Amino acid sequence: MLQHTRLDALDDERLNAADKGLPARAAGLTVSEFLATGPRLAEFWTPLLALDARALEHNAAVVQGWCDERGLELMPHGKTTMAPALWQLQLDHGATGVTLATPGQVRTARSFGIASIMLANTLVAPDAVEFIAGELADPAFSFHSWADSVATVEAMERGLEGVTLPRPIDVLVELGGAGGRTGARSVDEAVRVAERIAASPVLRLAGTAGYEGSLGHDRSPAALEAVRAYLAEMLEVHEAVRGLADGELIVSAGGSAYLELVAEVFGPHIRSLSPSTGAEAHTGALRQAQGAEPRTRWILRSGASLLHDDGFYHGISPIDGELTPAMRGYARVVSHPEPGLALLDGGKRDFPYDEGLPVPFGVAEAPGARERPLAGASVTALNDQHAYLRADAPFDLAIGEVVSLGLSHPCTAFDKWRLIPVVEGGGSDLVVALVRTFF
Fold first, then answer.
1. pTM: predicted TM-score of the whole model, two decimal places
2. Per-residue confidence (pLDDT) for residue 294, from 0 to 100
3. Residues 193, 147: contact at Cβ < 8 Å?
4. Is residue 20 domain-shared with residue 134, that is, in the same domain?
5. Are residues 236 and 136 located together in one domain of the fold?
6. Domain residues for 385?
7. Alpha-helical regions (H) of 160-300
């Protein structure tokens, strides 16, 4: 859990004119003072990114329930949002920790009191290694990083020379795949790395990890088979190295695109859910099933599922029908230079574009207002601050009207915004929160 005093302090931050999208009257008020005035999304400036509170709550419950039913723990990837308030939402629903991608992100999370962190990356920068060593003085802090080579292990050991280490750093050996991202490129290589970790006086071999999402980008038979084969190799690594380790082990995989394959391949080896209820079940406590490995935690790291989207994950997520897109963009028509072409005031500085362009849904007088449909139009390109909205035939758009946009890829949406308004949802445009990001 987060330290609520630190999280609550965000409501005391004073807003200013540099806060993109906020109405001018917000400047000088604290977040809590501004929200007490009952702001509506319609008064926010464009371009704008907004979140839906009901959709966020729904998705958090769906993803956590999905994991619980399959005996998986959830440590969602916090780099998707870098928003402590949204991390807390998933912790409240039963997530057992937060995954992060860089030591700087880990430092941010620790400043908010996150007690269980997985760094889905190597930890080799000497200053970062020393920082983690200091944090391990807190006996309640659980930390795991990854290593995919003997050189990585040696770099960690160099960073710990002369450092007082309260306890060894837990390290997962990372398996990769040909053409994929990081990770040892074979089971044999991963085992050699694991042996080196186990032999280290300052590190502890704590399991196996990897990322299957880089091995496929669609749901074609070839992509699905590549992911299944990779996950099966992860199990091979686990079987090969578990005898080298003392204490609890972790096996961790899973983005938001192939999470059902993680459950499918790992399923025969996963501990079953505890039948108990209450606090134990809420924290995702698991019991050992007959024949299951006695010391293994199976962890899914899906982060984008909290937001879902109207693009990439809408097309690839196996639980798309159960999730609701929780983010929406808004941009205003600023030019209508020719029939079938309108320019909007939102672009690459405002909306994600690396996994698909924004999708226009409707037109209204202001963000969050009642819309009329916008059929037959599409965004064909983005500049830094403009979107090209085109149609084969002339369309009825007036200068100053606002187009609502479905977005693709949450991971590159949040980094463009320091404060993001959250509407009540259910048709209400009442702004009930401002989510603070830390990129």
1. 0.92
2. 47
3. yes
4. no
5. yes
6. 7-52+322-436
7. 187-199, 221-241, 259-266, 279-282
